[in-house]
Design a protein that fits this description.
The complex is a heterodimer of chains A (343) and B (285). Chain A is mainly alpha-helical. Helix content of chain A is 71%, strand content 0%. Chain A has 15 helices and no strands. In chain A, helix 1 runs antiparallel to helix 7 and helix 11 crosses helix 12. Chain A is globular. The two termini of chain A are 19 Å apart. The termini of chain B are far apart. With 285 residues, chain B is mainly alpha-helical. The longest helix of chain B has 29 residues. Chain B is 72% helix and 2% strand. Chain B is built from 13 helices and two strands, in the order H-H-H-H-H-E-E-H-H-H-H-H-H-H-H. Classes of the chains: A mainly alpha (343), B mainly alpha (285). At the A-B interface, helix 5, helix 11 and helix 13 of A face helix 4, helix 11 and helix 13 of B.
Chain lengths: 343, 285
């Protein structure tokens, strides 16, 4: 993921603006698919949080679902027992995810590589077992239901068509994109990216490696918790599958599909994967595995960058106007990029 | 006392199944540095092949078992030779992505071929009956699994330590370029090791069908367990895998008997503690 090292990053407002624009377009173009839009926004937020851990900090994890589940159950329990306000619930979910990430990160971040990966799996599996065991609180296998979410800002009810839910989730996603970009561009984010590139050198430079990674892990946990809270509030039910190994694996697949370490890749991966899943699953619940499995293998055998440059080489001639935006032609592109790096 | 004996017997049998499946993955992951998340799918292939042969073709169990193992090994060899060898030098994320995709396709194929229901492998009469040891009767199937597990462990350790192939394998792992220069057929070694691992996974899938029910999502469901065994045992260590599989298998079985409400919590707690104690695995090569 050497792309994480590019120091010239786009301004923080660009990605959220694109997200809002895409949300607005889909809101008016697909009024009967708002549930899907909500789902994509939630998945995108979750994959974005995963990108902070995997793409930016370079920690391969299969346990991000634990933080998502913590946020979902936190927000659901908050709405059930204390207060139905969605924004307060969002805060609670965010805090729950961040807290779990902080507590478990303090343990698992002491290890690296495969050991770390397996410990994150253990964390999410232990969390799932605890939730299943705490049937009186969490509903166990039946899931947590029966809570009502109050109108957003005291005015907008969560209607059946899912309009409020869609706008709400897209808005939260846009905010999270802004936040994530600011984090990545901050000195703190630079330090974390430095640790990704070379842990030993950053430690030698005096960076407190463990604390920086713990900070990033906690922040990402908070975002994942927010995604969980969104899911709990917009779906009205929290199931055990929100903590499952399968979800964590799918998230990683989405991230790699879109490209790790670039934030917008997380959004693209979540969008493509969720759309693919949705279309294939509506045909036959098992066919979607054929399609998704095939796409995954194809992506590895023919990486997207290669496919794009091939396409650009094919279609590049008539589109000379694209050079205005600073994108060189397909052929010499790689050579130019290679020449840029050392400077 | 009977309870303890049951726990010990079932736990060891479960651990042996985990070991038989995990040892191939431990070798590919630890020695060849290839993250093969489709390993669970190979175990499923073996189990399905045996189930279909016994049920549809009417083969006897004793014929279906070696045939299924052979078929899985062959499938592993073909996939390795065609595709996977190109991925050895790619990033881990690429390997993860590809092998998960492969698992998805195999899950979908299993479902398309045999439907979503659980596949049962009818046991031959010899294994279905209990064995009378004079002072106690024990299920023959469990004893058979334990015996096969021990045989696999001994054969694998002997192959790696004492045969020409084992020498080649260790040389190919330690320094592939030098080994190739010395005339060791690297490609053959890699392909054969991978195929052997796949075949063993298939064997584990057949033997473990009683303990780990064969259904399409088998490939992902038990993948976690196999990964845990590999991590706790130490990547690439055969004896470590055996030790980890036995320990974790016993923990899992004991918790099923004694703490039935807690799900897999004791299993993963034990794993976390063992990994915290020895991050590189119990016995790292």
């Amino acid at each position: 993921m050497s792309t994480a090292s590019t120091l010239t990053t786009p301004p923080a407002w660009r990605l959220p603006l694109l997200v809002l624009a895409a949300g607005a377009v889909s809101f008016f173009a697909l009024p009967d698919q708002l549930g899907l839009v909500t789902r994509i926004a939630i998945m995108a937020l979750l994959v974005l949080s995963l990108d902070l851990v995997v793409g930016i900090a370079g920690l391969a994890t299969l346990g991000q679902a634990a933080m998502f589940g913590a946020g979902a159950y936190g927000a659901g329990l908050f709405a059930l027992h204390l207060h139905g306000d969605p924004l307060l619930g969002l805060m609670v979910g965010c805090a729950a995810g961040a807290l779990l990430a902080f507590l478990t990160g303090a343990f698992v971040l002491r290890y690296q590589g495969f050991t770390f990966l397996m410990l994150t799996v253990a964390v999410s599996q232990i969390a799932a077992s605890l939730v299943q065991r705490g049937r009186d609180w969490t509903g166990g296998d039946d899931g947590l239901t029966g809570y009502t979410v109050a109108p957003l800002l005291g005015q907008f009810n969560f209607d059946l068509e899912g309009r409020t839910a869609a706008i709400y989730s897209v808005a939260v996603l846009a905010g999270a994109c802004w936040l994530a970009r600011r984090i990545v561009n901050s000195p703190f984010g630079l330090a974390v990216r430095g640790i990704h590139e070379n842990r030993a050198r950053m430690a030698a430079l005096g960076t407190p490696v463990f604390l920086r990674l713990l900070g990033m892990y906690t922040l990402a946990g908070g975002l994942a918790g927010a995604a969980g809270a969104l899911a709990a509030q917009t779906q009205g039910v929290v199931g055990l599958d929100s903590l499952s190994f399968g979800l964590s694996a799918e998230l990683l697949v989405m991230l790699v599909l879109g490209g790790a370490g670039r934030l917008h890749g997380a959004l693209i991966g979540a969008l493509v994967f969720t759309l693919l899943h949705h279309t294939a699953a509506s045909i036959n619940p098992y066919h979607w595995l054929f399609v998704v499995g095939g796409v995954l293998m194809a992506v590895v055998l023919v990486p997207p960058e290669k496919a794009w440059s091939w396409l650009r080489a094919r279609l590049g001639r008539p589109q000379a106007g694209r050079q205005v935006t600073g994108r060189p032609e397909a052929g010499p592109q790689d050579a130019e990029r290679a020449a840029e790096v050392p400077r | 006392m009977t309870l303890l004996l049951n726990i010990a017997l079932d736990g060891v049998a479960y651990g042996m199944v985990l070991f038989i499946i995990a040892v191939g993955m431990s070798v590919t992951l630890g020695l060849m540095r290839f993250v093969n998340l489709s390993h669970g799918a190979f175990a499923m292939c073996g189990g399905y092949a045996a189930a279909l042969m016994v049920r549809e073709a009417g083969f006897s169990f004793w014929l279906a078992l070696p045939l299924a193992v052979l078929a899985t090994g062959l499938a592993g060899a073909v996939i390795e030779a065609l595709v996977l060898r190109h991925l050895y030098r790619r990033s881990e994320l690429d390997q993860v992505l590809f092998t998960i995709g492969l698992s998805f396709v195999l899950i979908a194929s299993a479902n398309a071929l045999a439907g979503p229901q659980v596949q049962l492998i009818a046991l031959p009469p010899l294994l279905a009956q209990p064995v009378d040891l004079g002072w106690r009767t024990l299920p023959a199937q469990r004893l058979f699994v334990i015996a096969v597990g021990l045989a696999v462990a001994a054969a694998a350790a002997w192959t790696v330590a004492y045969t020409r192939f084992g020498v080649w394998l260790r040389a190919a792992v330690d320094h592939p370029d030098t080994a190739a220069t010395l005339g060791i057929p690297i490609r053959l070694v890699q392909c054969a090791s991978f195929a052997a691992g796949a075949a063993l996974a298939g064997l584990g899938g057949v033997l473990g069908a009683e303990l780990m029910p064969l259904e399409p999502y088998y490939a992902l469901k038990y993948l976690v367990l196999v990964l845990v065994v590999v991590a706790v045992g130490g990547m690439g260590s055969i004896s470590g895998s055996l030790l980890a599989a036995l320990a974790l298998g016993t923990v899992e079985t004991a918790s099923k008997y004694l703490l039935s409400g807690w799900g897999s919590l004791p299993f993963f707690l034990a794993m976390a503690l063992l990994l915290a104690w020895r991050p590189q695995g119990l016995l790292r090569r």
